[in-house]
TrEMBL record, chain A:
Residues 10-22 have a biased composition (Gly residues). Residues 76-151 form the ChsH2 C-terminal OB-fold domain. This is OB-fold domain-containing protein. Residues 1-27 are annotated as: Disordered. Pfam families: OB_ChsH2_C, zf-ChsH2. It comes from Streptomyces luomodiensis. Residues 42-72 form the ChsH2 rubredoxin-like zinc ribbon domain. It comes from the Bacteria.
From TrEMBL, chain B:
PANTHER family: ACETYL-COA C-ACETYLTRANSFERASE, NON-SPECIFIC LIPID-TRANSFER PROTEIN-LIKE 2. This is Lipid-transfer protein. Residues 256-371 form the Thiolase C-terminal domain. CDD domains: SCP-x_thiolase.
Amino acid sequence: MTQTDTTTAGSGGSGATGGSGRADGLLAPVPDEDGAPFFRYAARGELRVQSCADCGEPRFPPRPCCPHCQSFDSLWTKMSGRGRIWSYVLPHPPLLPGYAAQAPYNVILVELADAPRIRLVGNLVASADAALNSVPPERLRIGAPVKAAFHETDDGLTVVRWLLERP
Amino acid sequence: MKDATAIAGIGQTPFAKRLPESEKTLACRAILAALDDAGIAPSEVDAFASYTMEDTDEVEVAKAIGAGDVTFFSKVGYGGGGSCATVAHLAAAIATGQASVGVAWRSRKRGSGPRPWTNTRVQLPTPAQWTRPYGLLRPADEIGLLARRYMHEYGATRDHFFNVALACRNRANQNPAAIMYERPLTREMYMTARWISEPLCLFDNCLETDGALACVVVSAERARDCRHRPVYVHSAAQGLPAQVHGMVNYWNDDPLTGPSWTAARRLWKTADFGPQDIDVAQIYDAFTPLILLSLEGYGFCARGEGAAFTEGGALEIGGRLPLNTGGGGLSEAYVHGFNLITEGVRQLRGTSTAQVPGATTCLVTAGEGVPTSALLLRS
Ligand SMILES: [Zn+2]
């Protein structure tokens, strides 16, 4: 079974696979039908965003039709993986146990360089597989350039994480 | 619609961290108290409006209180965004002849009950698949992210958030029903409080509370025969902006102009007065930064000026816009904003514990960040 097949199996859109609990206690995304391709591409190390096959407008989160021209045809456009921190927050307990264990950690919102209105929620980490608190909070800065990294969670789904361009 | 209906009765239970009775019992107590306040028999009630995340439905309430045949009922989505819409729906139903006596309520046991987001493990459908796995677990985290950006863009500081927390606390200190009655807040307490989600600390967050509230809406004509001075529903609106995405509204052109902007445009359009004529405001305050966003959205100041607006005691009694005069969600009770409606009524009756002298107009708003609603009340 290829890596792509593995992630596809977890993205059937039912959300009822019970696979949302990971050994590290973090929540795994439960993709719906529209969002599943994002995770399939992530598993290949690609950051792709849904865009309209007719007018070309990118959209996020993924959905069935284009809000600009109402077309139901979409493409998944490859992004450079570069962006900037639009904002960030540092959650402290009380939190779910898996998150409390790493708190305070960061959650960042990244504005993509190729599509500025596409902003992805993620984590700034020291390396793709490092902990959510692996970058010291004082390194976080709005506007800081970041690049995408890909972390395979322990239930087989790949999530996009972020590294500082200038670590 | 304008002034065609009025709030004729209000009622509430005690507010506490823990109350022994069930949500259903509390709901019935608040509703019966509101009907008694109006001087209307429960058998005359023929309309109900509630909002989601309410565990007691209208069938149970109608049965328990002894309502008559009900000809209108509605339920508004998006949690705290629905508070004002309940009154708006009843007002519309009564103004169009679909019903004659409407009841809206909110009953919650969030002080002693579970928080919805402690159960995120099994709640990861769209849109949460894009946010929760990354640790954006609670509303405080979602709003904290917007607050950080707002601070960055407009130079807002924690002192501005404190101005909001303090105004609400000062009013709660005057309100014996408030959970934070006789519990003053100082700047030092605020600045040294534990973080919940930086940049938000403990005092930037609303109180988890047990309690219930209700109000009775009737035609303006009927209200004039009730026990108290009528409080007219002058204007009402809901707001679900283009491309909105709920509390994590990060994917439109401008995430810092939220649902309040949409509701406000309609609200003022159908009103005889404007923001400059508002004597007192009850603005949804689940988190302090929401007030700054709402001050801008509802037109009390320009975009980016919400923080500066709070300076110099503007939100205190005697200030430019006395705010949340019962203490609000931050310091009276967090019951999904329904206490803001009842406090608006008290101000216009002249019976608030922090009365704004001669108040005749009041803005009440519902949850900002989620699809929302708002009311202009006048006496
Ligand atoms: Zn299109």
